[in-house]
Amino acid sequence: MANYIASLAAGALLFTAACSAGEGPAPKPAPAPAASPEVPRPPAAPGGLPRYVQAKDAGSLEFNFVQAGAAGKGRFRQFTTELQYDEQQLAVSRLKVTVQIASLDTQDKDRDDTLKSAELLDAGKFPTAEYDATSFARRGNGVEAVGKLTLHGVTRALRIPLTIRKTADGVEISGEATIKRLDYGVGQGDWSSTEWVGDEVKLQYRVPLTRAK
After folding, report:
1. pLDDT 10s digit of each residue in the chain, 213 long?
2. Cβ neighbours of residue 38 under 8 Å, at least 6 residues apart?
3. Are 72 and 83 in contact (CB under 8 A)?
4. Which of 82, 85, 86, 60 is nearest to 73 (CA)?
5. 3-state class of 198 per DSSP?
């Protein structure tokens, strides 16, 4: 009798196992989510870069133009420059130049008044021009500021080749660029014609900067 009961128990166990097998394999655990691709970090903020500022009344900002077929020249007496720069971190280096339009000087008062009038630079409505470069790039043996010029209320991209030379107190920065005045709306009414005043204006910039503490 004992053998008979044991046989029944063994059969019951085999039947149970067979039924469990018929229900299919146990569900596999859900795979772990794939690791998210690493997001590139933005360039470091320029807070740690060496900072340079323009000494008061130092440097020059000149402009060259053509009037009635003759070459003309002027300068801005008042402007400020701030540079955050490291030759090993050009992508986050910065340059900001702010120019007081009313400080222009062409050695001719009547011409200066005309240039500052509403028909041209309109110094009353747009008292400053600003160049703001938020990065630099290598260009030949020098660098190029990559930024935007805001003039007469119009902002346009402008890249300026620059030479940056170390000095005892900091650096000297210089460069030049050519812009078209009509691209910035400088020239209303009769002055929108290039018959008397050329469209192209060449800017020349040189200024010593001292290392800020």
Report:
1. 444 334 433 344 333 333 344 444 444 554 544 444 454 444 444 568 999 999 888 999 999 999 988 999 999 999 999 999 999 999 999 999 999 999 999 999 999 999 999 999 999 999 999 999 999 999 988 899 999 999 999 999 999 999 999 999 999 999 999 999 999 999 999 999 999 899 999 999 999 999 998
2. none
3. no
4. 60
5. coil
